[in-house]
Amino acid sequence: AGTVPEEPRCTVERADASLTYSLFLQRFAFSRPVILGGVTDNSAFRALCTREKLLAAFGPSPVRLSTANTYSYRKVDVPFQEYVAHLLKPQDPARLGSDTLYFFGDNNFTEWGPLFQHYVPPPFRIPGTSPAYSFGIAGSGSGVPFHWHGPGFSEVIFGRKRWFLYPPDKTPHFHPNETTLAWLQHTYPTLPPAQRPLECTLRPGEVLYFPDRWWHATLNLDTSVFISTFLG
């Protein structure tokens, strides 16, 4: 904890449980991201996501890891307990994305399904979409570099996760094989204020919504557990 800095000032709008569904559709769903606080209570899910509980339930189970670069499809399968013992560690700033393995989005939902039944998803939906979960656990300094896809929500269960976001018409400057940590150290300081992304750090219980086709990159400031709800 504390080895990767938070942003000086959160520039993503925040909303609380008073946000209605109609206002969510009107103000955010198709136009800009928002951080939602107090819209769900996932304390029961959080209690099942401690290191000890997850190892007891899924230790020998295989998990599929992805490389942490933008245009790669390499996957590696390892037992969950091996990932926790050997790969769940702080990011090496000099390591390329293609050599960094990241646990997110490719879990065996047949085996992990009972865990996700305890998750309370955000209460909002985009008309014509259906939700799909992606669960992740990662070390300090790890993350996914800039990419885009359909709309979704992301909630932090343990730790802190820093987000960087650009609208669809503003492609960020990045190298596809550079980790988010390397981008933060090398490219981010050179950006003039007008070219900086929207950014904020999520804490446990906070949910970020991002609209369709928005560029985003993530950076785990601590060893983190997180879950996304993609709307496809």
UniProtKB/TrEMBL annotation:
<protein>
    <submittedName>
        <fullName>JMJD8 protein</fullName>
    </submittedName>
</protein>
<dbReference type="GO" id="GO:0000987">
    <property type="term" value="F:cis-regulatory region sequence-specific DNA binding"/>
</dbReference>
<dbReference type="InterPro" id="IPR041667">
    <property type="entry name" value="Cupin_8"/>
</dbReference>
<dbReference type="GO" id="GO:0005634">
    <property type="term" value="C:nucleus"/>
</dbReference>
<dbReference type="InterPro" id="IPR003347">
    <property type="entry name" value="JmjC_dom"/>
</dbReference>
<dbReference type="InterPro" id="IPR050910">
    <property type="entry name" value="JMJD6_ArgDemeth/LysHydrox"/>
</dbReference>
<dbReference type="Pfam" id="PF13621">
    <property type="entry name" value="Cupin_8"/>
</dbReference>
<feature type="domain" description="JmjC">
    <location>
        <begin position="98"/>
        <end position="232"/>
    </location>
</feature>
